[in-house]
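Tip: read the tokens left to right.
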């Protein structure tokens, strides 16, 4: 017989696969009531030089298009000491880039007692990275999945003051039309977003901005789509992810009126993609002639390596091609950019 395990019982998978007396069991504990695992166990990584570090589980927001709070429970932050201990183990194993993730990274620690925050966590991790630094080239630290409502001045100032933290801000906004943001359960308006991104660029010169938006959300009119288009053209994000609204009966947004057809959502998707491709191409052109620090990640063929700059996050952004005969995978090298494409860069060792 099968064994059914909820997301709060993932640690029982080995038992379920090996113990006969568990066959036919159904374990569905509420995710938010289960303690986070902080046992310090080593884990497999697809790349030895980069590691994701989960700093919190679950989410306490109520976005109408998202089922994660039901699946994962409310936000449950890990204790700072446990995170720093994991970071130290990863750094000792040779990790050169740490990527902090959660459903809402910038709200980290507000549920703890005593309360903590992302700025203080980043400071501790940066200190651990410097202490582990053997070759005088500090590892990269970046965080993904921030939220416009929870990112504060302390985070911006921390990123600006600590060079090991990548000046990279991934802050999904989902849309720019105020009434759609309200329908989505997002408690800010377009003016707030413009002010936020202006503040980031002012506090952290050279910061890379990434966001995601949803097209085809129920009630999105032609005027709303045009407003989103103008917003993207105004802010000029370094990286933009575009999602077509995905409906499901268990989503609050499913019950909203005026659903958008799949064909129209697809049209709006391609319109935005074309706009962003042009923005990205022009953004990348400015790096031609500059020398950038690149983390070397793979060698797809002879005399060609692939790496990433600090403004290229793993798996979601473009890459940097390096024409070279020999480089060490998992190390940093200075690369002079010689060419650029819509999303990628090309260069050679400086």
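Filled-in amino acids:
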């Amino acid at each position: 017989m099968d064994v059914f395990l909820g997301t709060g019982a993932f640690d029982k998978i080995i038992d379920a696969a090996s113990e006969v007396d568990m066959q036919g069991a159904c374990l569905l504990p509420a995710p938010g009531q289960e303690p986070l695992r902080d046992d310090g166990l080593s884990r497999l990584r697809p790349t030895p030089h980069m590691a994701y570090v989960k700093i919190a589980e679950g989410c306490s927001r109520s976005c109408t298009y998202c089922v994660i709070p039901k699946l994962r429970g409310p936000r449950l932050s890990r204790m700072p000491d446990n995170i720093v201990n994991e970071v130290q183990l990863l750094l000792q194993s040779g990790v050169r880039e740490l990527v902090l993730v959660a459903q809402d990274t910038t709200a980290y620690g507000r549920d703890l007692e005593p309360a903590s925050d992302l700025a203080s966590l980043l400071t501790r991790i940066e200190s651990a990275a410097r202490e582990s630094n053997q070759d005088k080239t500090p590892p990269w630290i970046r965080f993904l999945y921030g939220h416009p409502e929870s990112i504060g001045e302390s985070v911006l100032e921390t990123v600006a003051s600590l060079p090991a933290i990548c000046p990279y801000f991934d802050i999904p906004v989902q849309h720019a039309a105020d009434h759609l943001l309200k329908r989505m359960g997002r408690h800010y308006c377009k003016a707030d977003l413009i002010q936020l991104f202006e503040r980031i660029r002012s506090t952290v010169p050279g910061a890379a901005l990434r966001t995601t938006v949803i097209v085809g959300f129920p009630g999105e009119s032609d005027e709303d789509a045009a407003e989103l288009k103008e917003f993207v053209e105004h802010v000029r994000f370094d990286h933009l992810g575009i999602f077509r609204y995905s409906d499901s009966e268990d989503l609050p947004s499913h019950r909203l009126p005026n659903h958008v057809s799949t064909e129209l959502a697809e049209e709006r998707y391609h319109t935005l993609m074309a706009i962003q491709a042009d923005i990205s191409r022009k953004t990348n052109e400015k790096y031609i002639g500059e020398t950038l620090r690149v983390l070397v990640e793979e060698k797809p063929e002879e005399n060609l390596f692939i790496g990433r700059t600090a403004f290229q996050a793993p798996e979601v952004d473009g890459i940097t091609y390096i024409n070279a005969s020999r480089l060490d995978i998992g190390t940093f090298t200075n690369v002079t950019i010689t060419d650029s494409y819509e999303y990628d860069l090309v260069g050679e060792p400086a």
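Residues 4-285 form a domain with the pyruvate-formate lyase- activating enzyme fold (CATH 3.80.30.20). The longest strand covers residues 291-301.
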